[in-house]
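Researcher: Going back to the complex we discussed earlier. I've cleaned up the inputs and rechecked each line, so this should be the final set. Can you rerun the prediction on the complete assembly and write out the structure?
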Amino acid sequence: MSLPKRIIRETERLISDPVPGITAVPHSDNLRYFDVTIQGPESSPYENGKFKLELFLPDEYPMVAPKVRFLTKIYHPNIDRLGRICLDVLKNNWSPALQIRTILLSIQALLSSPNPDDPLANEVAEEWKNNNVHAIATAKEWTEKYAN
Amino acid sequence: MASPFFDQSLETTTEPNSVPLSQDPEPEGESQSSGYLTFKKDLTGVLGEISESSVQILYEDFQNAKDPLDKATNAYLDNPDVYQVIDDGKGRREKKRYFFTSSKRKKEDSKAAPLTVKKAKKEVSTDDNRWKREIGTIDADCWCTRSIFGSASLRKASFLPMMHADNPNVVYVNEIIPKTGHRREIGRFNEDVAKILGPLILSNSLDVRITPCYIPDNVLHIGDTFIVQVDCYLKSSLFVDDNSTDGDDFLRAYKLSNGKSGSSDGALDPFTVMKRAALLDLFGTLRLDSPSLQREKIREAVDLDQPDEQLLAKLQADSQSDSENSSSTPSSSSNITLNQLRDLYKSTQSSSLEIQLPETDPPDFKLTLRPYQKHGLSWMLQRENEYDLIEGGGTKKDEEDGSFVNPLWREYVWPKQVKGSSDSSFFINLYDGSCCSKRPVIRSTCSGGILADEMGLGKTITTLSLVFSCPMDRSIVADPRYASRTTLIVVPMALLSQWEREFIRVSDNPGRRCYIYYGSDTKDSLQFMLCNTSAPAVVLTTYGTIQSEWSKQEVTNSCKGLYSVKFFRIILDEGHIIRNRSTKTAKAIYALKASRRWILTGTPIVNRLEDLYSLIRFLGFEPWSNHSFWKHFITLPFDTGKDLALAFSLLKSILDPILLRRTKNQRDHNGNLLVELPPKEVVIERLKFNEKEEVIYNWLKARAVNTFNENFRRGLLLKNYSSILTHLLRLRQICDHIDLIKTQDQGDTEDVHALQREILNGSDEEVLTLVRNLERKEEEEKMSIEEIKEIKAEIYDLYPNFDGIECSICTGAIDIRNCVITDCKHCFCVGCLKEHFDFQESHQDEPTGDPTNPDSSLMFNAKVLCPMCRSVIKKNRLFRTIPKQFATCDDNLLTQVSDKKSIERFYMVRPFDPYGKSSKINALFSHLQQIREESPDDHVIVFSQFTSFLDIIEKELKKYGSDFKVLKFDGRLGLDQRQRVLESFEKSTGNDGVKAISVLLISLKAGGVGLNLTVASKAFLLDPHWNNAVEFQAIDRLHRVGQTKSVKVIRFIMQDSIEERMLEIQKRKNQLGEALTLNDDERRKKRIEEIQSLFKE
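Model: Rerun complete. Updated structure for the full complex:
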């Protein structure tokens, strides 16, 4: 199956006009598979961290959302131990008008504002709500430990 | 068998036709003549008919002996070279006598002679120039039929065979009593030997010399066994010495044998059959060498190797394609199996490869022929005996002169070679048992043949090159009714103009004209026109014209029009049209007169060997054009499986000289493919019904399943076959377009007659009501005029133009010809938004309504959000943009929005009609749009079986104005129109000279065969046919010689519909290999099974 023009256009733009703090590079043997890095947002527990993610565009893309997963260990109420992300635009709120770029920005935003009320990692969410200081300290600790 | 044994055993019998001898001849003292006559009489009594010369010599030598008759008999039999003299005049006799005396009396002269005499027992004397030749010896058991005392004496006796008066299978052994010359029966051959010897002796084909071999001492009792040695000599009467059997002789012999039995079905009389069997048994017993038999064995061994799968598939396609068309030939007799057919094709193919002919370039010919076409031309010229026209001065070679060893004959090697004789072997006719010492060859007598090159190899061009190479009969014929300068080419109506165009295209000589004889009124003047020096080189006509002229002629019994002249040459294009010899068309074609006859066909054997017969009949290829002959040798063996190998090699030898077949996959001597065609890609594109179609389809399907099950339960399937077919037809129509069910269009159904009008019209009021309800509902949900006006105004406000606006789904720029705007005013490509709708609809868990209930609210209820703003969007609340120049007055009526900028704005919007077109039309149009973007002057062909579907597409495409040049080709067009359509299609520009996509809409039936559409490289098959060979034939219109681009074909199939089931049936058919023609009933049963598989869930 040939690569849809949309994917080609998106890839070209990601390279020619990159989003600050985000890189996304397709694999040369599979242009639907991207190596992604996201800089931890400023004034968040993830500041100065460099998180690796993988992004895959399924055949139905853009009718369905890309599949994105953290590869770097991260302490976050909406991201589980396997790196799976709980984000509405990756699920029900996906729209074909969204793009790789916008999705990655959404993920970056999620790092700035965790949402422990809609958790994926329940223990982290509990900690986040009940012992916020400790949770943020752990997040910083993990960032230093894994995301450098 | 016991009775004749005893009847004869106790009596002394004499040969029935011999005159009983009352006394020993006493030549002394009597006059020469009376003594001679008595001697002759006695001698012939013993030896049968012998030549006068032999009698004379014997008389001269033995008249003074003690027992003249006895001595003469022995001498005759012992020294056949001396005494068995053929009557051919005194000289011979003198020589023989001299020879004899010299050997007997003058030792010095007898160096080689006696030896030769012993060895070469060839020359025999009878009255009609005959001879005999030894073929071997049998040791035969005999039963003693009388008690003989002192039987040891028999060991020196002379024995003669003796036939039973009535039964040819009973042979006695007689002893010649030395004293009297009388004969006395002593025994009888065992049955196995008697069966061999009897018929042969009786028919004077075999001479035997019996010598005692083992005889018990003392007494022989009745029933005792003794053994004799039987030396066998074939007699010349068995031999028909004609070194070639051309058709006439063959036929005469055949008729003769037919006459004997008085039957016309080609059966031989029983005795000839018996004789033939006896001969073959004898050769078997004697273990004669037969090179041909050995070859046969080797061939059989070789044939066991793996079948060529590809060829197999190909053949299936071939045979299938025609079995569909030939539903009028229901006779199930003489079907041939696929394997046989395959073998046959294989062999005819390989033999044509072996032909190493020069390449001939035709004169006055604009085109350059391909090498294999040049070979083909040489072959055709050779078939017409035009050797001097073949390049390199093709010389007439004996072996290549169309003479082929007649496979009806089998070769045997003489067991003993004779000095001075070149004959080392002889041949036996496996049909009537006659023999021949020279190699029998079939000399083909017809001028012409079958050019059976595979489709797409340019049979037309090769044939025209023949016409240009040899346009007229160069022999001087002064027949006022002989059109010696004209070739008549008979073609199917659809190909008439194509032939004419090809003729004009290749002709480099303005003097060569092509005249179309079709529906004109030149019937009376045809002879005048053709039989002079300015006659056209080619007259083109159709099978229909000939048939109607023939029918008229049958009535009026006058020779008019085409029948008033004898043509120089007749060429039948698609010659398999006449494959059924009992059709009017075939008979009409047979009745045409011509010196040279040719048949062009891609499928010489459609499915029965009888098909081939009709072609051979037309060619006048004797003796095979005699039907009973053909039936006996070809059809029956293939039917019964008896003598199959013989029939097969016979068939091959019939076809070898007259048939040339090359295939695309064949390679020339350099190993290159004959035709390098660009690649071909056939893609199946599965489409989904839109909601409206789906509702109607499901409703129709439920009804069809109900009807089917009901009929199946009551066992009325066959009876109500036509109504079931109608249901199927409806389903197929929905797959194309809802509006088709409002028409009478049946598509290319092969069961046209089965579909009755009443059924087509009657019960479908129901479904029409359903459609109307749906349409009403659709209407209700539409936006009101006020709403439309409002949104239009907003859109015009928001989008003065579309510069820099992109579709957020594909991220490409918006093209206003292809843009749709939601009521939340977001723009998308039509295709992108449709994909979005489809995806959302199929991924939302909808409650499935009852498909049989038209009121169920299955339609229009999926909740789809705008990709941009996530507000709910509906298909019937969308707007379409249209470039202003294509806007019709409808767009301005009622909903016209007046604003200042309308003049500058270059587009308009109109409400989007989501179900107005069918899913297939939508898919087709989006492909066409894409093609237009990539190559705006391309040629596209669109096939459908439903002409009314093509009508709808034509109407829709015309809305696009000059972007598309739309042409339509179907059975409703007259000849002139067809030609105009094809010519116009080949031009690459639109009517006003602007670049445009040329779209040719063709009904599969009208355009599936023959047409050459290589100007196009893209095609769409809108609906599947029951038989995919038909579809492949259609594809081959593009993918053939002359095609320079790679061919892309898209077949549209509606998902989860009858069309997918049809694909399965096609696939299964291909696997099974339906080479068999079934009769009507069987065919229906078969179809019922297919239909059953259609309805199963």
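Model: Worth noting: Residues 53 and 89 of chain B are 9 Å apart (CA to CA).
Researcher: Good, that matches what I expected from the previous run.
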